[in-house]
TrEMBL record:
Enzyme class, first EC level, given as a word: oxidoreductase
Lineage: Eukaryota, Fungi, Fungi incertae sedis, Mucoromycota, Mucoromycotina
PANTHER family named among the record's database cross-references: ALR/ERV (PTHR12645), FAD-LINKED SULFHYDRYL OXIDASE ERV2 (PTHR12645:SF1)
Protein name: Sulfhydryl oxidase
Presence of keyword Transport: no
GO molecular function ontology, one term from the record: flavin-dependent sulfhydryl oxidase activity
InterPro entries, alphabetized: ALR/ERV, ERV/ALR_sulphydryl_oxid_sf, ERV/ALR_sulphydryl_oxidase
Superkingdom: Eukaryota
Keywords noted in UniProt: Disulfide bond, FAD, Flavoprotein, Oxidoreductase
Signal peptide interval: none
GO terms for cellular component: mitochondrion
SUPFAM superfamilies (UniProt xref): FAD-dependent thiol oxidase (SSF69000)
Catalytic activity: 2 R'C(R)SH + O2 = R'C(R)S-S(R)CR' + H2O2
Length: 119
């Protein structure tokens, strides 16, 4: 993977990716099927392989080896994503987010009849 030297691009990419990840797990089923669980895990593992910032991908893969994606429920996945983001925040010297506020911050933004991900 090539090195993304431009700090602005790296930060924009990071913000967009975190937004996608947190919003996606906020819509993950409360009681996922084994197929849905496998899909989320695969998505995260592939994201860590293909993430277009080499330094970030390398660190993310190490984090995933230590803290594997939690996919048993929406809450488990959301709390896991929050904790992983906080590990990255800590490494970069950024503020730690209070994961008790995660539900309020990442509402699904979808219509009421379609609040869960359809995989
Ligand atoms: P971001 O960290 O992008 O967060 C965006 C917003 O999410 C914040 O403003 C806040 O409202 C909210 N937020 C903050 N913490 C949490 C949380 N724990 N849970 C939920 N919401 C939260 N950059 C590097 O320089 N080096 C790296 O090694 C690196 N690795 C990365 C790995 C991954 C997988 C990703 C997605 C990004 C990585 N980045 C890395 C980018 C970095 O994490 C930031 O996205 C970037 O520096 C911009 O930071 P920011 O301050 O705008 O907020």
């Amino acid at each position: 993977m090539s090195h993304l030297g431009n700090a602005t691009i790296k930060a924009e990419l990071g913000r967009s990716t975190w937004k996608l990840l947190h919003t996606m797990v906020a819509r993950f089923p409360e009681s996922p099927t084994s197929d849905e669980r496998a899909a989320l895990k695969q998505f995260i593992l592939l994201l860590s392989r293909l993430y277009p910032c080499g330094e970030c991908a390398e660190h993310f893969q190490k984090l995933l080896a230590k803290y594997p994606p939690q996919t048993s429920s929406r809450v488990a996945a959301s709390q896991w994503a929050c904790a992983i983001h906080n590990h990255v925040n800590q490494r970069l010297g950024k503020e730690i987010f209070n994961c008790a506020d995660i539900e309020a911050k990442y509402q699904c933004g979808c219509d009421a009849e379609n609040t869960e991900t359809t995989l």
